Each structure stands twice: as C-alpha cells, then as structure tokens.
Amino acid sequence: MSLPVVLAGVAGLFVGSFLNVCIHRLPLRTSVVSPRSRCPACRTILPPIDLIPVFSYLWLRGRCRSCGVGIGLRYPLVELATAVAFGAAVARWGSSLAALQAAVFLSLLIVACLTDLQTGIIPNRVTVPGTIVGLALAAVGPASLVTAVLGVIAGGGTLLLLALISRGGMGGGDIKLGALMGAFLGWPHIGVALAVAFLAGGVAGMGLMAAQRKRRRDEITFGPFLGAGAVAALFWGASILLWYGGILRPS
Ligand SMILES: [Zn+2]
Fold this sequence. Notes:
Layout: H1 3-25, H2 55-59, H3 74-93, H4 97-119, H5 124-140, H6 145-166, H7 172-185, H8 189-210, H9 223-248
Helix pairs in contact: 1-3, 1-4, 3-4, 4-5, 4-9, 5-6, 5-7, 6-7, 6-8, 7-8, 7-9, 8-9
The protein binds zinc ion.
C-alpha cells in the first residue's frame, strides 16, 4: 500500500468517527458539532482518549469507561468502513479531485444507509446539502454539470415514479437519495446504480418472502440497496456499461 492510501485510510478513521455522531444525532434533529460526545447511558463526557477511532473501542472492550454499558459494534465498523472507503478512493483515483468526490460521496452514503437501517428514515439534512455539494463538485470537476443534473433528474425521477406507482413502497428519503446519487454519479452511471439496487433489493425481498420473514406488502428498507448500487456504479460503472453494451450489440 502506498503512503497516500494509508494516509487516506487514517483520515477515514477520524471522518468515520464524525459520521457516527451524524448517524446518532441527525435523526434526533440535534446539532452534530455540539455538545461534546457523551455516553448515551450515563451522560459522562467522553475524554479525548476514549474518542480514538477503533482503538478506544478495542482498548475499552466495547464498554463505557464510567458505567460499563455496551458501546454498539456499529461505531468501530463505521470507522473501519470509512477508512476502507477513503483508502479505496485514493488507490483508484490517486490524490485527485475525483478521489475527493468519491470520499465525500461514500461518506454521505454511509450516513444515509445507517440512519435508514436504524430509524427507517434518510434525513433531509444528508440528502439536500449532499445533492448540492455533488452538483458543485461536478461543476468544478472534469465531468460536466449537465451530466450531473441529468443524473439528479434520472435518479430522483425514477424513484419518484416508483413511489407514485407503488403508493408508499418507496419513501421520500429514497427519492432524495436517488437524486443525491445522480449528482455524484451523473448520467448514465446513475442507471447502473439503480439497476444494481433493484436487482439486489428484488433478490433480497424474494429471499425474505420465501423465508416468510416478510409479506408481499411489507416495506423493505431500500436505502442500503441504493447504497450498494451506488458503490458498484462508482467503482465499476464503466465496466458494467461496457459489458451491458456488449450484450446489446453482439459482435
Ligand atoms: Zn456510560
């Protein structure tokens, strides 16, 4: 591993620590910068030594120093996932604007998917500013703003249409997450993301129905599937499009 990749990974650990705060506080509609981090059980303000990503969790064996209440495994996992995401972005695109775009995008996806899994809601405070940042980065980057705007329309529009057809099967948060993904991925990569998300969501839904864990009319949390589709489109979108084009035009 090269030094920039390792440095990106370390930065990812600390950003992941902040993403944990966002995942915890955004659904509560409280500030993500103040007050300082406390144990949710005993309200003790955590000393800086307990805020070191991953290591504090291991050192404290997953328990609060003062009251001993268990700290969710989510915390170190989100930090590790963010570290891997940042490392992968720099490994793929070097120290470039494209890597920064990918890192910002992946951070937003982590917060959106985790809040959706925990509360069933993807907060507007993630998707609305996220979409604007995605468009702004597209405007200064090599990909054109037009591609990004088309991506927003395609991503948000497709999910809005599905929400209207399914009458509530798809939430407003999913629609806005689709728009955010379109801003970062642009057209036609957003199409790849949606196709992968629907495929994965469909397979998982049928699996759950077969296992009789869900009935046909139950809602499934779709955010994580959109997130998985977005990751696939971000890293392998071009290859998937080439492969799909090859199927359409057999030589
Ligand atoms: Zn405590």
